[in-house]
Specification:
Layout (H helix, E strand, L loop, with lengths): L5 E5 L23 H12 L5 E6 L7 H13 L4 E7 L6 H9 L3 E5 L4 H7 L9 H13 L4 E7 L8 H10 L2 E8 L14 H22 L4 E2 H9 L17 E4 L4 E3 L11 E4 L3 E2 L1 H14 L9 H4 L15 H16 L1
Parallel strand pairs: 1-2, 1-8, 2-3, 3-4, 4-5, 5-6, 6-7
Antiparallel strand pairs: 8-9, 9-10, 10-11
Helix pairs in contact: 1-2, 6-7, 7-11, 8-11
GO molecular function: iron-sulfur cluster binding; metal ion binding; oxidoreductase activity
Pfam families: Radical_SAM (PF04055)
Protein name: Radical SAM protein
């Protein structure tokens, strides 16, 4: 088995929201057992090197006691894991905020724009918008001096309003980085229209212009994840798909039942199943899948932007050699911004 650099741990398939585009809406709603979680962490630690352990779901804060148990286990055994969580933000209570801060867990919160835009996409099951609950949760972290990241899912409905995410980031006061995640066409995502290439290009131009303006006015710098990635990739010495842990065979997703998949986008798809925490990872299958994804995306290597882009996302392919052109527009805007700085 290749040493793992990243493991996404789905603590539960359950979620307290009913977001219109959720790609994970069809996952098993059960919660991971402690034994499964421990086996998964031990598996990732076998390589001996540092790795990222990202808590995911569903909504991982629904399994807060399990999260605490895992964090205590990692610290108690001095496992070289950087712990992160991606949360919808609505369950960041005082207790949860204390846990995240005390355990040194990096926090990413999903926010799709200003309240009216966010509420149209991310709702409670009864139809109510979630922005108020998300902002309240973030403010609990702000009060504790905890910096966070924001993740925005980009669709046709909110692409024109992406600068509003930057406005919210400066308003909240504790946002260090903002990342834009294009719609995934799985789960409920198949019923939401993806953003067009030209709309993404224009939106990102406005995003970067607003970032520069607000930085001059406030003296605060907020990183755009895609621009940071472009800067990092410019320093690399290899020419492969090193930005994607799945494509390099160094990342996995473990679902709540302990099944191991090559990528979070393909949970439940037997073609991407690599094993389970009880029996380990099928190293041959892991290598075969990594090579298969790289072969499928090999046409990216002929692009003049490849070295700073790292290639398109395999999960967003819509057919043979049919890349998501909106992703290309997003990354080209980020490369332009990174090059100009």
């Amino acid at each position: 088995m290749n040493p793992l650099r990243m493991m996404v741990l789905s603590l539960t398939g359950a979620c307290n929201l009913a977001c219109r585009y959720c790609y994970a809406s069809e996952q098993d709603a059960r919660t991971m057992s402690w034994d499964t979680a421990r086996r998964a962490v031990d598996l990732a630690a076998e390589g001996g090197g540092p790795f990222i352990l990202q808590f995911s779901g569903g909504e991982p804060l629904l399994a807060l006691p399990l999260l605490v148990q895992i964090a205590d286990y990692i610290r108690g055994n001095r496992i070289r894991a950087r712990m992160d969580i991606q949360t919808n933000g609505t369950l960041i209570s005082d207790e949860a905020a204390d846990v995240l801060c005390d355990a040194g867990i990096g926090v990413g919160v999903s926010l799709d724009g200003r309240p009216d835009v966010h509420d149209a996409l991310r709702r409670f099951p009864d139809g109510r918008g979630t922005s108020s609950a998300v902002i309240t949760g973030i403010q609990r972290l702000t009060a504790r001096g905890k910096e966070i990241g924001l993740t925005t899912v980009v669709t046709a409905e909110n692409v024109a309003a992406l600068p509003g995410v930057i406005e919210m980031a400066y308003y909240l006061g504790n946002v260090r980085i903002v990342g834009f995640d294009l719609l995934r066409g799985q789960g409920r995502g198949v019923s939401v229209r993806p953003a067009r290439e030209e709309d993404v290009a224009l939106a990102m131009e406005r995003v970067f212009a607003l970032c520069r303006k607000l930085e001059r006015l406030t003296g605060r710098h907020i990183v755009i994840a895609q621009a940071e990635q472009a800067s990092c990739l410019a320093q690399r010495t290899d020419g492969g798909f090193s930005h994607c842990h799945a494509m390099s065979g160094a990342g996995v997703h473990v679902d709540a039942l302990g099944r191991i998949y090559a990528c979070s986008s393909f949970v439940g798809d037997e073609r991407f199943l690599l094993g389970d925490v009880a029996h380990g990872i099928d190293a041959r299958r892991q290598e075969e899948l990594a090579h298969e994804m790289q072969r499928t995306m090999a046409f990216c290597c002929t692009c003049t932007d490849f070295l700073r882009c790292g290639g398109a996302c395999y999960a967003r392919m819509t057919g043979e050699h049919a890349i998501c052109t909106a992703e290309c527009a997003l990354k080209r805007a980020a490369i332009k911004e990174a090059t100009s700085n």
